[in-house]
Amino acid sequence: MSQALENTQIPDSSAYMINNEPFYLPVADEKPLFTAAYNARLPVMLKGPTGCGKTRFVQHMAYKLGRPLVTVSCHEDLFASDLLGRYLLKDDETVWVDGPLSRAVRMGAICYLDEVVEARKDTTVVIHPLTDDRRVLSLDKKGEVVEAHPDFLLVVSYNPGYQSVVKDLKQSTRQRFVCLEFEYPAQEDEAKIVEKEGGVDEETALSLVGLAHRIRNLREQGLAEGASTRLLIYAAQLIRQGISPKNACLTSMCLPITDDPGLSETIVDLIEDLF
Ligand code: ADP
């Protein structure tokens, strides 16, 4: 086998550029805060429940800041090498292929690690030297230390609702980020989002949001997480296609969020009250 080939050119960022402005309705001061963090190159953590707009926000900010965006959805089988890269055999030669994080570091992208806590522990360790003033990524297998491009920024998301003691971010990791907290948008804002993204009229959007609020209150009765903005948009998209509101809500805002017969019954009652 021939000697390992070097492949450390700066990757083409055009595939990672967002060309059309993603619709994002600000819910607080997250835009100026993120911009300030980006300008100071402070790593950012987005904390909040699933489906409340974190991913959309990063897409919007990457567009606004004119930076490429590299997104990685973290999961429990995500190894450090999946982020960093590995040697692969190609035409009898071993070629180093950068992983998404290495690519982002070289091209000066915003790298978004979605649900970072899901990743294996060895994965979180590789991001440490990137998130302090060293701003380097160590590719141990390749024997290379990559200095982050000046425009690079690491962003992670984290859903505190899911966390258990076993799966929590260590303080040594958490304390490397500034944190923006996300919640479901206020009622009128959420209705505007559902109207725009779901393609329904204002009245329907407001009804769906009203229902979501009632469902979210069931958390006190043991519901792990309320219906997300994403699910409201799903319901709206079904309604727009002629599915009855009752059926759309059952399919999008009840069945996905719980298997508990008692809670399901309560949600069905809430739906029937409304439609
Ligand atoms: P998360 O990353 O928090 O799980 P997403 O960013 O994927 O959630 O949000 C789910 C959907 O909700 C998005 O695709 C978008 O349609 C909508 N959404 C949520 N919040 C907003 C917002 N503030 N402005 C525009 N769309 C939003």
Automatic annotation (TrEMBL):
UniProt entry keywords in alphabetical sequence: ATP-binding, Nucleotide-binding
Pfam families in alphabetical order: AAA_5, CbbQ_C
GO molecular function: ATP binding; ATP hydrolysis activity
InterPro entries, A to Z: ATPase_dyneun-rel_AAA, CbbQ/NirQ/NorQ/GpvN, CbbQ_C, P-loop_NTPase
Domain ATPase dynein-related AAA: 43-177
Annotated Gene3D superfamilies: P-loop containing nucleotide triphosphate hydrolases (3.40.50.300)
Domain CbbQ/NirQ/NorQ C-terminal: 190-273
Family the UniProt entry places it in: Belongs to the CbbQ/NirQ/NorQ/GpvN family.
Protein name per Swiss-Prot or TrEMBL: Nitric oxide reductase NorQ protein
Organism: Desulfatibacillum alkenivorans DSM 16219
Upper lineage: Bacteria, Pseudomonadati, Thermodesulfobacteriota, Desulfobacteria, Desulfobacterales
